Structure formats: C-alpha cells, structure tokens
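Study this protein:
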Amino acid sequence: MKIKDVRCEVYLREQRPRRIKKDFYNIKRPVGKIPFTILRIITDDGIEGFAFDAQNILNEKTINTIKGEIIGRDPFDREWIWQRLWYMYGRYGAASGRPPGVQALSAVDIALWDITGKALGQPIYKLLGAYRDKIRIYATSWPLPTPEDYAKEALSCKQRGITAYKLHVDPEIAIEACRAVRQAVGDDMKLMLDHGTDDNRERALQVGRELEKLNFYWFEEPLPDYDIEGLIKLREKLDVPICGTEKVPLSMFSMPQYIIHRVLDIIRCDTVMSGGITPCKKIADMCDAFGVKCEIHLANPIGNFANLHVECAVKNCEFYEMYWPEDSYGLKEYPVLDDEGYIHVPQKPGLGAEIDWESLGKPVASY
C-alpha cells in the first residue's frame, strides 16, 4: 500500500458567538462564517485518512511540499514521515512559540494513523496498546461574562452526570468566579481553573492560595510556560497541583526539562498542537516513566477523536477535556457521553470519525 494523493479542502463553518465579559486577553474572536481545512490522505488501495486544520496552517505551498515528501511512501511508515516533517517544519520558529508547521505535521500524522486503523480493521487506541475503552470527562467553559454564569453552567453539568468542570476566566473575576462555582456545585465535584498564562507572579500566588481553600483539583497555566523559575517557586509554595506546557515550543523535545526538574505536577499536550498522535503518546509515556500525570488538551473535532484514542491507551491521563457545550462541527456524530460522565472511545476502525459531507456543502477552495 502506498500514498497516492494528498488533498486539502477548505469549508466554511459557523463560529459560535461567545458570551464574554470583554475581549478575553484582548484576543479578537471572529464571528459568522469562518474557514477550516480538511486534510485527505488517499492510498492506492482506496483507503482515506482524515484530519482537520481549524487554523488553516495547511496552505497550498505547505501541502505541495508535503506531497513531495510523502506521496509514494508506505502510510505505515509513520515514524519516518513524522521525523522527516519534523526536521522540515517542527524544529524551526521556536523563538516565537510553538511553530505553526507543527500543526501541519499533526494533521498528517493523525490522517496516517486513521489509515493504519482502517487498513488493519482496528480502532487506533487498540494499536497504541489499549488501557481502557472509556474515560471520565471534564467540561471546560468558554469565557463567560459573570461569576454567576460560571456557577449556573457548572451546576447544569453536574446535573448531566459530569463530575468535573474547568473555568476559563478573566483574571479580574477569577477568584469570585471560582468561589461562586464551588458554592453552587458543593464539595463533591472536581474543579479546575485555567488562568490563561497570566504573567503576574504575585497574582498567581494569590489565586492559587484561594484555590487551595476551595479544594480545586488543579491550577492550569498560572504563569507562562517559559517562566520556569516562577513555576518552580509557585509549585513549592502551593499544594494545589500546577498544570502547564500547553504552549511550549519544540513539542516532546522540550518536555524533559519540565519533568526532570519537577517544574509542574501535570504535563499538557494534545494531538493537534504537539505534532500528532505519535509524539502525544510518547509524551504521555515519558511522563508515566517519571510518575507524572499527563492531561491532554482539547483540539478540533477530529483532533479530539485522536486525543481520546491516546487517552484510552495510557494510564496516567485521568480526563478527556470537552468544551461545554460541545463543538463538533463537520462530523456526523460525537463519541458517546454516558450518564456517569464517561466518554466512550469509538470502536470503528481508525479514528472512528465520520465526516458529514452533506452538511459541509461545497468547498470554497481545494488544492
């Protein structure tokens, strides 16, 4: 079996309006119809693997270069392909954060794993080494206007059977919102705070001490990942577990310093921002060898399927992160969420994700 063709198709989707207190961290959020790209890798056996690119990193120039590298290769040569594309795209641009090319590599890697599973008639988590077939979720909020909005949403999640909830909240109302949520849901729901990489060490310590009083399960991104000294000092002063590395450059090659020096209690990665399923599984295994938890960050809809397969193949990941309400554009169905707060990994070959081509309409561009 050989890779016969690589295609990209750009579609439009409706961006949900987000109820926010103000421009969250001054980020302009588009509304209305916005583009996203579907990557299709096609073999000479007719098997197709898919991945989404929600940030449209896969432009025509990039995809033509990728075609020149992988067309004619065996799609089972995932490690060779990953290493080759990493050399080309992943290791450059670190000074400005995670290189955009890593997300192009991620899409290729996810699609190749989809092909592998379909060719072998197995779901990906089985090929990775299945540890379980379901995992508990935590609902993760969009930024909301008031503490009362967070409390109301968290309570609705609890009533749905969800046992954990994470706040994305403006630092100005973070403590007030965390207090409101804890009061609304009681003591038996696990709560987390994503602080959004605020750069104020004093405020991070203040917030962390309040989270300890409220029995929060973890404190995510209290400081930028590059502030290693600040994170170490914060971890030494707080009992609430500190979670980070969502935005470190160089993917898995940057992780050892955070693990060996015990910068954080919980390491973050995901199959879209970290370079695909291949490095995400390696990062989780690396963490496991050192007794460190690895909690996987949410991605785009197909990326979330890929995340779920990795999470069900490792021991040291406790949760699947799900936006609440879920955002599953472009797919016919989402993995099953049961009444006890578990999401079940698809049992179909490959990713198990079925694209709803009819709802997408005609692509606005293809190359």
